């Protein structure tokens, strides 16, 4: 068993170290390049969607993915009640689409967004690298967010292009 280092001593040796805070977490994750996805669902008053960088593969058998959503997000009320969601992997040519779905108050499904009603009524975006329609299996409380676990029902991985990434607070393309 190893001893836990004294925080004050460690901070003296590493003067840039900070105690846990929302700002620290944001600063650290600005250093983490993440793929960009848009999550969609159909609500009683129309489709909703948001840009997410928290998408993860959880299980291959059965195929399950996860994503996080803030409980204060405008899409949360619909996501909290939806049985199915759409997950869309964006290409580097879709920076404006990512920005639209990230912007508060934007008409996310108006022109120029191209989409169609997919299986289970889920909005499916056109022109993405890949998409999935998933059945919501669980919503797990995690601080001011919920982690949504969703089992894949149907998908299409045949889009063409390179992935869109989010790094240092900006959307970027993947470079060799």
TrEMBL record:
Source organism, top-level taxon: Bacteria
Protein name: Flavin-dependent reductase
Lineage: Bacteria, Bacillati, Actinomycetota, Actinomycetes, Kitasatosporales
UniProt keyword list: Oxidoreductase
Domain Flavin reductase like residues, every copy: 29-173
Biological processes per GO annotation: pyrimidine nucleobase catabolic process
Family matches, as Pfam families: Flavin_Reduct
GO molecular function: FMN binding; riboflavin reductase (NADPH) activity
Organism expressing this protein natively: Streptomyces olivochromogenes
């Amino acid at each position: 068993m190893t001893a836990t280092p004294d925080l004050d001593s460690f901070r003296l040796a590493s003067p840039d170290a900070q105690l846990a805070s929302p700002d620290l977490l944001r600063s650290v994750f600005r250093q983490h390049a993440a793929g960009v996805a848009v999550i969609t669902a159909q609500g009683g008053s129309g489709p909703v969607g948001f840009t997410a960088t928290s998408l993860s593969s959880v299980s291959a058998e059965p195929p399950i993915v996860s994503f996080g959503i803030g409980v204060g997000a405008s899409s949360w009320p619909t996501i909290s009640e939806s049985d199915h969601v759409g997950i869309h992997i964006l290409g580097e040519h879709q920076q404006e689409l990512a920005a639209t779905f990230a912007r508060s108050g934007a008409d996310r499904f108006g022109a120029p967004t191209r989409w169609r009603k997919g299986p289970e009524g889920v909005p499916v975006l056109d022109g993405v690298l890949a998409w999935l329609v998933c059945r919501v299996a669980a919503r797990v409380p995690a601080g001011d967010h919920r982690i949504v676990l969703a089992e894949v029902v149907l998908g299409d991985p045949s889009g063409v292009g390179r992935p869109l990434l989010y790094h240092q607070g900006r959307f970027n393309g993947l470079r060799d």
